[in-house]
Amino acid sequence: MNSFLLTIILFLILIFLLLTRTKQCSSSSSTRVPPGSLGFPIIGQSLSLLRSMRANTAEQWLQQRVNKYGSISKLNLFGKPTVFIYGQAANKFIFTEDRSTVANQQTQSIRMILGDRNLMELKGEDHKRVRGAIMQFLKPESLKRYVGKIDEKVRMHIQMYWDGKQHVKVLPLMKTLTFNIICSLLFGLERGKQRDRFLDCFQTMIEGMWSIPINLPFTRFNRSLRESSKIQKMLKELVQKKKIELTKQNNIIASSPQQDLITSLLCMRDEEGKEVITEKEILQNAMLVMVAGHDTSSVLITFLVRLLANEPAIFEAVLQEQEEIAKSKLASEPLTWEDVNKMKYTWRVANETLRMFPPIFGGFRMVVKDIEYGEYIIPKGWQIFWVTAMTHMDSNIFSEPSKFDPSRFENQSSLPPYNFIPFGGGQRICPGYEFARIETLVAIHFLVTRFTWKLCADNFFKRDPMPVPTQGLPIQIWPRKLS
After folding, report:
1. How far is CA 252 from CA 15, 24, 273, in A?
2. Could you give all domains of the chain from N- to C-terminal order, each with its CATH number?
3. Signed CA dihedral, 143, 146, 150, 155: sign only
4. pTM score of the predicted model
5. Is 430 annotated as a binding residue?
6. Residues 79/42, Cβ–Cβ less than 8 Å
7. What distances in angstroms separate CA 276 from CA 63, 125, 158, 195, 421, one per listed residue?
8. How far is Cα 290 from Cα 118, in angstroms, rounded to an integer?
9. What are the Cα distances from residue 78, in Å, to 233, 350, 442, 475?
């Protein structure tokens, strides 16, 4: 009983502090702040946005704001005063603005779950240093060596979960596949109890990343924090183990297809022989890569399967491209980097899928000092909220946006910049872009050349915050032979 009363008292104190903070924020920088309401303290419009995302009406919810206030408005999301901006100019502003005025910073819930030393939080030279270290592993020249490994994991996955089956649920299986690939390539973890523990903790952790940051028992946020601590502990044990292995090898490891991301980061040294990236940065960026690589790729592959079931002509065109590649190889011969680069039409289909069903709903930036945007002032300390689909589905940018048309991406360089942003834009494009491309194309290659399928449920999906199809997208499958 005493602990319950203490929790209530602390909660009331938190409300009082946030009320005071909200009043201070709402009165700052004169009356030139954007139009709109900050709503209730702490909660603001968070619950309303989350409800609309789960009902798959979030874009309409935001369009109503645009209709009422224009392309910029203020609101309160996840406990912080926020400005929502929309349009090509807004996207360009987000991805090109100097970091001394608009910096990386996610919501408090994400920051507390993933930490403050990951790429989404780091600024200036720290961001450049850590991004550069991760890009050494994820750049195309390095990823060429990993196509065969991804091929091996996809074949094994199909053999275990697809062959001999009549019905499967696509999304859970794609989450299993992408998690297995991440664990193998990024952490050097193969099948076993340790990897299974990672998966259980990880799935619970990501559920509370978009949530109101009130750390009370039985909330999603509280559960996510607990699982985050467990994952960090397991990763720390893994890092220590790899450090011991490196010490036994005199701290020298040759670059090879077997080298995982953590080993790669541990081996990096500057000109003076000092570590390029700290252990804390390794742990937190490993967690970030887990989230990005697991959810985005699994959702993209799932929606490609969904799309191909509804578009027979597109399925046949993808199948024809993939069969041409398959015919040029022995059945046991793995795909290569050159094979992946031949999958041009399939990647156009994937891009159109990303346009209509982007895995990442949107993101946040933090205002470092008062800045002028349009005719308004965005105060220091506020966050900026941008949403991917708002330009993807804008008829002024993409004609007939509800029509699935892969030909939009025949010449992607001709598209107006900062409108198609599933992986970000400019210098801030996601460093895992090429990894996601390879993972997606290899998976689709084996699915379309080995199976045909039809949907067993309706086409509804919700965002939580990633798009989640009804019942995990159950399908009926039939094996096929190479034509």
Report:
1. 54, 55, 12
2. 2-479 (1.10.630.10)
3. positive
4. 0.86
5. yes
6. yes
7. 44, 12, 39, 27, 30
8. 12
9. 27, 32, 37, 36
- Three-state DSSP class for 34? coil
User: Which of 192-201's residues contact partners 24+ apart within 8 Å by CB, and which partners?
Assistant: 194/234, 197/234, 198/231, 198/234, 201/227, 201/230, 201/231, 201/234
Instruction: Say which DSSP state 384 is in.
Output: E
User: Are 306 and 199 within 8 A, CB to CB?
Assistant: no
Q: Could you give the CA distance from residue 42 to residue 55 in angstroms, rounded to a whole number?
A: 23
Q: Using an 8 Å Cβ cutoff, are 435 and 138 in contact?
A: yes
Instruction: Kindly give the parts of the chain with pLDDT less than 70.
Output: 1-31, 250-258, 482-483
Confidence (pLDDT) at 210: 80
Query: Which position has the token pair 């920051």?
Result: 111
Residue 456, both tokens? 């067993």
Please count the other Cβ atoms lying within 10 Å of the Cβ belonging to residue 96: 14
Contact yes or no for 88/418 (Cβ under 8 A): yes
Contact 210, 50 (CB under 8 A): yes
Bridge partner list, 76: 81
Measure the CA–CA gap between 388 and 392, rounded to whole angstroms.
7
User: What local confidence, expressed as pLDDT, does residue 383 receive?
Assistant: 93
Environment class of residue 401 by beta-carbon count within 10 Å: exposed (0-12), middle (13-18) or buried (19+)?
middle
C-alpha dihedral over 97, 98, 104, 105, to 10 degrees?
-90
Element (H, E) at 466: none
DSSP H/E element including 444: helix 433-450
Residue 115 region by backbone torsions, left for phi larger than 0, else alpha for psi between -120 and 50, else beta: left
Six-digit token string for 37: 């309401």
User: How many CA atoms lie within 13 Å of 170's alpha carbon, on the beta-carbon side?
Assistant: 30
Interatomic CA distance for residues 449 and 326, integer angstroms: 8
Q: What are phi and psi of 221, to 5 degrees?
A: -60, -45
Strands (E), 14-119: 72-77, 80-85, 102-104
Instruction: Report DSSP state, residue 416.
Output: P
> Exposed, middle or buried by CB within 10 Å (0-12, 13-18, 19+), for 225?
middle
Most distant CA pair in the chain, distance: 72
Rounded to whole angstroms, what are the CA distances from 469 to 345, 355, 382? 25, 17, 33
Q: pLDDT tens digits for 211-233?
A: 878 888 888 899 999 999 999 99
What is the spatial distance between Cα 353 and Cα 361, in angstroms, rounded to a whole number?
14
Q: What is the DSSP letter of 251?
A: T
The single residue listed with the structure tokens 């910029």 is 72
DSSP state of 427: G
The residues facing 181 across adjacent strands are none
